[in-house]
Amino acid sequence: MLVLLLAPFLFSGCGKKSAQEPENFNPETLNQVVYDTQENEYSIGEIVKNQASFTVLEVWASWCGDCVKSLPKVEYFQKKYPYVNFIFLSVDDSAEDWQNGIQKHFANHHINGEHYFFNTGWAKDSSNAFINWAKLDWIPRYILLDQNGKVLVYNAQNIDDEIFENFLKP
User: Fold this and answer.
1) Model pLDDT for residues 67-86, shown as the tens digit of each residue
2) Rounded to an integer, what distance in angstroms lies between the CA atom of residue 23 and that of residue 42?
3) Residue 100 pairs with which residues in a beta bridge?
4) Is residue 146 helix, strand or coil?
5) In 86-125, which positions are buried (b, 16+ CB within 10 angstroms) versus exposed (e)?
6) pLDDT tens digit sequence for 24-48
7) Which pLDDT tens digit goes with each residue over 142-159?
8) CA angle 87-89-92, nearest 5°?
9) DSSP characters for 70-115?
10) Contact status, residue 37 vs residue 124, Cβ threshold 8 Å
11) How many CA atoms lie within 13 A of 19 on its CB side?
C-alpha cells in the first residue's frame, strides 16, 4: 500500500528536471523568427523577455486534434492561474491555416494569450532552432518559464500535468 502511495513521487521526480532538459534557451533559439497575427516579425527572445509573471509557451497547430481537445483545459488552467501569461506558437504549414485555426478553435473559449507563427511548419529535420531546441516530438507541448525566462518545465504534453502545481501553487 505504501508503495502505491509513493509511486507518483518516485516516478515523477517531484518536479525536478532531468540532466537533458535545458534551463535556458540557447542563442539560436532566442533568435528564431516568429510572426504575429499582423505579420510583424519578432524573435523568440523578444517575445519571452520582460514577462511580468510566469509564462506558458504552447506549441500547437490547427490540424492537431489533441491541441484542439486541450483548449477547455487551457481555459480552466487560465482561470485557476490568472497571473500566468500564455504564448501560443503555431507549427501550422501556412499562415492562412494558422489564422483560420485561431478563429475556428479559440473563438469558443475564453483563452488569453499572444499568438505567433513559425512559418517553417513542423519538420523533423527543421531549420527551426526552437523546434530543434525543444526536441519537438508531440504537440501540444507546454513549456513553463519563470519571470526571468528560465525554463521550469521543459516537456509537458498536458496543461493539467501536476508538475505545474510544483511551481504555480500560491
Assistant:
1) 999 999 999 999 999 999 99
2) 22
3) none
4) coil
5) bbbbbbbbeeebbbebbeebbeeeebebebbbbbbebeee
6) 899 999 999 999 999 999 999 999 9
7) 999 998 899 999 999 999
8) 155
9) HHHHHHHHHHH-TT-EEEEEE--SSHHHHHHHIIIIITTS----EE
10) no
11) 0
**Collapsing DSSP states into helix, strand and coil, what is residue 41?**
strand
Radius of gyration of the chain (CA): 16
The angle subtended at Cα 96 by Cα 95 and Cα 102, nearest 5°, is 90
Residue 147's CB is within 10 A of a number of other CB atoms, namely 12
Q: Which amino acid is at 26?
A: N
Q: What are the backbone dihedrals phi and psi of residue 132, each rounded to the nearest 5 degrees, phi first?
A: -65, -45
Q: Which of 6-20, 57-71, 81-95, 141-155 has the lowest mean pLDDT?
A: 6-20
Within 13 Å of residue 141, how many CA atoms lie on the same side as its CB? Answer: 18
C-alpha cell at 142: 507546454
Q: What percent of the chain has pLDDT over 90?
A: 72
State which amino acid sits at residue 139: I
Q: Are 57 and 83 in contact (CB under 8 A)?
A: no
Q: What is the pTM of this model?
A: 0.86
Distance CA 16, CA 162 (A): 12
| 168: helix, strand or coil | helix
* Residues across the chain: 170
